[in-house]
Records
---
Amino acid sequence: MRLGVAADHAGFVLREPIALQLQAAGHEVVDFGSTLYTTEDDYPDVVSPLAEAVACGDVDRGVAIGGSGVGACIVANKIPGVRASICHDVFSVVRGVEYDDLNLLVLGAWVVGPELAVEIARGFAATQFEGEERHVRRLVKLKELEMRYNKSIQEKVTA
């Protein structure tokens, strides 16, 4: 699997260990930075390119790491086609992928330690969407919501 990884300054410490473990598990990892630690970065600037790559299919899935993860999750979910969630345990990430086709994992470096973060990322990469009819039906509804609200917002902007 081709996985993108991105972190702001607060998540910087977890970016490399996660990327290395995903590579060791046989995945191709695309680094979306930050590759240099700087407290001046802003999570929207780091997470949005990763989320766009997930939405466009340039990477199969993504892992975004922030301090709490909340801001990164908000940014990622602004991109149509991205289904991002903060997960602080393996159970949630596995269920998120199996049932909701989670395609962007968000981790809070201030919330989970390095060992757990790596375990969660491994679970994310190792799990597949089940594709049961009920899950597909729900994803169709999510896509319909995205299209309806994107169209509504575009109409308001151009009016």
---
Amino acid sequence: MILLIAVPVVVFAVGLLAGRFGVRWFQSWVNCLRCALAALFLLTASAHWSSFRPDLVRMVPPSFSDPGLIVTLTGFAEVAGAIGLLIPRIAPWAASCLAILLIAMLPANIHAANAGLTIGGSPATPVVPRITLQVVFIAAVLVAGFGPRWFGARTNTPRPGDAQRD
């Protein structure tokens, strides 16, 4: 679970630092957040095809058929969402889909905690911390996708036809 927190925090901080050193795209905290979440979702998606896959398949509640297919599809959805967050014009759509995906995957996390399953040899995160983390991730993806609209934040992303200033 520490990676689920450390990876986005480190990527966000590195992005802010890059912005301070003049990397235009990272001069927006929203873009830094988008990169941090993209890194998080690429990390979690990689587990869908790694040695963690059997653990993720066991996490799918028994009421669902073909848990292997569900794990594969959710992995592809995480990759697509991560890429979508990095494209400003579709970031709101990607954020909406990732929020829905996080809500849809919550039963698997609850099942893993209640069934005492392990993920990579470590016990699944207990229900209350997992739900709390899931709510934080949902809020973060929505802020990343809709932040410029909600907070008036500039994304500093050049658009075709933008004039260069000296």
